[in-house]
Design brief:
By secondary structure, the protein is mainly alpha-helical. It folds into 2 domains: about 100 residues, Arc Repressor Mutant, subunit A (Orthogonal Bundle); about 35 residues. The protein is built from 7 helices and 3 strands, in the order ααβααββααα. A 3-stranded antiparallel β-sheet has the order 1-3-2. Helix 3 packs across helix 4. The longest helix is centred in the first third of the chain and has 27 residues. The chain starts with a helix and ends in a 21-residue tail after the last helix.
């Protein structure tokens, strides 16, 4: 097998792992990856504005709002207007949302991050530059994406 073929096989394996994890998340919790990321961020940050959430998750405010709309319809998140500044809206998890998070699988990137942090600095840099080169070779380096390993719709479960 040519080296480029080995690289393409490895890329397909990564895509497949992400796809399988996304399907498991959808089946087990009825959530998409971005929904889970947003809910976990609310859990970590507490009562939070959409702007803070979008910064924390690297999502646009419009994307975060769309996801919050769906989570609120499902009673996992509640939005309330600030008592001190009526222009601000805060999101927080409901009891249903907390219960769902307790049973939801961990995001796939959590395992990756744990293993990546165990690498030596030079290994991290080598891996980063290689993946950035791959991204450029696939004309994907300028795509606006959040740091999450999920595929499919941001707001809907399949």
């Amino acid at each position: 097998m040519e080296k480029y073929e080995e690289v393409l096989v490895a890329i397909r394996q990564i895509i497949r792992a992400i796809d399988l994890h996304s399907k498991k998340l959808s089946k087990d919790a009825g959530l998409t990856g971005p929904q889970l990321i947003l809910m976990r961020s609310i859990e970590v940050l507490g009562e939070v504005t959409i702007r803070q959430l979008s910064k924390h998750t690297n999502m646009s405010q419009a994307t975060a709002t769309t996801i919050l709309d769906r989570l609120e319809r499902n009673h996992y998140v509640q939005r309330v207007r600030s008592h001190t500044d009526k222009r601000k809206v805060h999101a927080h998890l409901t009891e249903e949302g907390r219960a769902l998070l307790a049973k939801a699988p961990q995001p796939l990137q959590d395992s990756f991050v744990d293993q990546f942090r165990q690498l030596e600095d030079w290994e991290q840099s080598l891996l980063l530059s290689s993946v950035q080169r791959l991204s450029a070779m696939m004309n994907a380096e300028n795509m606006d994406v959040a740091p999450m390993l999920e595929i499919g719709s941001i707001t809907k479960t399949e």
